[in-house]
Fold this sequence. Notes:
The structure holds two protein chains of two kinds.
Chain A: E1 12-17, H1 21-32, E2 37-40, H2 56-61, H3 63-84, H4 96-120, E3 124-126, E4 129-134, E5 137-141, E6 147-157, E7 161-163, H5 171-174, E8 176-177, H6 178-181, E9 191-194, H7 198-209, E10 214-217, H8 228-240, E11 244-246, E12 250-258, E13 267-274, E14 277-283, E15 285-288, E16 292-294, E17 327-329, H9 340-355, E18 369-371, E19 377-381, H10 384-391, E20 396-402, E21 421-427, E22 433-440, H11 444-456, H12 461-466
Parallel strand pairs in A: 1-2, 1-6, 2-3, 6-17, 8-15, 9-10, 9-15, 10-11
Antiparallel strand pairs in A: 4-5, 5-6, 7-16, 12-13, 13-14, 18-19, 19-22, 20-21, 21-22
Helix pairs in contact in A: 1-9, 3-4, 3-7
Chain B: H1 2-9, E1 14-19, H2 24-39, E2 45-50, H3 55-60, E3 68-73, E4 76-82, H4 87-98
Parallel strand pairs in B: 1-2
Antiparallel strand pairs in B: 1-3, 3-4
Amino acid sequence: xxxxxxxxxxxxxLAVIGGGSGGLACAKEAAKLGAKVVVFDFVHPTxxxxxxxxxxxxxxxxxxxxxxxxxxxxxxxxxxxxxxYGWDCSKVGHSWSNMxxxxxxxxxxxxxxIRVDLREKNVTYYNEYATFVDxxxxxxxxxxxxxRTVTADKFVLAMGGxxxxxxxxxxxDYAITSDDIFSLKYHPGKTLCVGASYISLECAGFxxxxxIDTTVLVRSILLRGFDRDCADKIGSYMEASxxxxxxxxxxxxxxxxxxxxxxxxxxxxxxxTVDGEEKSDTFNTVLFAIGRAPLxxxxxxxxxxxxxxxxxxxxxxxxxxxxxxxxxxxxxxxNAPELTPLAIQSxxxxxxxxxxxxxxLTDYVNVPTTVFTPLEYGSVGLSEDQAVAKYGEENIEVxxxxxxxxxxxxxxSSPLDGHNFAKLICNKADNERIVGLHYLGPNxxxxxxxxxxxxIMGATKSDFDRxxxxxxxxxxxxxxxxxxxxxxxxxxxxxx
Amino acid sequence: SSGINAEYGGAVPTLIDFHANWCGPCKILTPxxxxxxxxxxxxxxxxxxxxxxxxxxxxxxxxxxxxCVKLVREGNVVGGFVGVKTKEDIETLIAQSLx
Lengths: 496, 99
């Protein structure tokens, strides 16, 4: 491809700091448009010395291994269902190390493919930790301590974030985070997940599904920011399935009773405060999922006068430009949903605007998402609380219902029943335009992803009513919603 | 790395087996190569290169997909292939390359 006409003397047109979902998409698109691009990526090992290759959080310690472990745990449920369908599943067990081995092989194959892909697309890659010297210069260091200096016309910050550890004695010495769980060399044993975030609940969910004794320690509410009805049902489902909740409680210290070995988890005594009283229990693994912090302060932002919030998020304009004219930021650094496809989209569109004369901006509204807890939760648009705050309660109409996936009819009655759920939130002042869609049930990602195009096209309740559903599926529930929350009518399921 | 230079520059043709522990097909090909080299002792050598440990060398030899085998003799790459092959096919390829 033709090289761009260069109006500068720097080493590169574009330097991308962070080789994750957003950074790589931006770099490759820019290179495709003729820019000379360099990507810096470097992972500082966790307190437990875990590290990983090129590709960022999603591939290595996020979406990908999470979905695979969630899937592994769902197979456990399906095996139980299979018995009802006539299969003989009497000799079934699970091997943590086989699962981790296969998942890590897949990840490492992808690390390799990404490196080859960057080479083929003429993107320079340095496995080095870059920090700013001035607005056109970074200094980078490799793992052996060798330094280099690189200059570039423009920079894209795409370093993302890392999990937080609490200020609790013993936490960094003995506890792990999501950075460690997906490559854990030993079986986790009895596990305590600390946090009420989707990360904590997803991890607790798949660990329990794999037969592991799992407890969740929560300070207050589950899944802050998500639709309250759905968050409550997720919690209730997880509890009904046997996951223990200590709520409200906070950890106060962690002591080591027996050290971990190459092949076995440690034995830890965890002290926590519940209702002002100190309690304790032993666990083999403690996993903190109490929040993530952007890596903004690690790139020497003061050298370029970069403005950032106290929580380290980087404010940008609608074109992802920071307060520094030649520096942009995308992905988890932003005050926006922390999602791979959003980072990829914004990375690509940014590159097209910088090097391809495009003017298209990224749309951050109506971005669908799915929480892969044992009861999966897909949503696009606003939660009920957000809709009420934005449009006023009198303008919001909520249609909702419970449902039972046909595949599950063979299951014996249990406390898990009655949690599958669907909700459409409409704006009565605008033709009952759908402002929020929420689904609890199997295949939430597939279903929500499909319906989301309706939301970005401005679908109304009557559009959903006009749609004829596919039977028997879970998705058809959105085509027959008739009970409103306002009516107070029961949504307990009737017989078909 | 010095091992590679020694083999690469030598008169005895050497098969360089670029592999990784996450690569399924590599686990199938490597024993075949070992059998073959054992059968043709002193006529052909085998050098194993893990691409995760020696990414730079893999890049130098233009390895983009694995398993990848390069046949080298006296400092030159004289042949090679990508993917799993039978022992007989590899023997034929080697014979053709060394002619």
